[in-house]
Structure to design on (149 residues):
């Protein structure tokens, strides 16, 4: 067989396997060493784990943000974080290059990661953020007639 035929066969086999892999149920796994959570199932992740696993890759470990191939705003000492609904909306819907995580994170997790960034990195916005706050915002952001349930 030629290399071209083998390459096409390998690609076709991979394309058949990938959808099954994406649909397969995955249990949350936390690493004791890093605190990272399996990125396909955040059902047991708290706010700090959500930040460590999905946010710090762009916003950096100390929330300092980054510039380079893209621009990632600093969360450290960021006055925009004073408004909890702003943070909740960004986590749910994203903006610009930041994806929304409404389909991945529960209301509780959005509330927890919102509270986490608002009370870390030099931020002292310690007003409570509740699951009910996030649930109401999620409903308000949903297209008319749509549901996240």
């Amino acid at each position: 067989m030629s290399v071209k035929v083998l390459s096409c066969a390998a690609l076709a086999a991979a394309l058949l396997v990938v959808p099954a892999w994406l649909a397969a149920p995955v249990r949350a796994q936390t690493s004791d060493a890093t605190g990272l959570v399996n990125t396909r199932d955040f059902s047991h992740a708290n706010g700090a784990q959500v930040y460590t696993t999905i946010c710090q890759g762009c916003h950096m470990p100390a929330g300092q943000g980054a510039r380079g191939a893209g621009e990632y705003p600093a969360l450290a000492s960021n006055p925009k974080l004073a408004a909890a609904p702003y943070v909740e909306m960004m986590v749910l819907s994203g903006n610009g290059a930041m994806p929304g995580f409404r389909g991945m994170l529960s209301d509780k997790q959005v509330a927890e990661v919102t509270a986490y960034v608002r009370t870390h990195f030099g931020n002292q916005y310690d007003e409570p953020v509740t699951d009910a706050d996030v649930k109401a915002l999620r409903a308000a952001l949903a297209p008319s007639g749509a549901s996240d349930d």
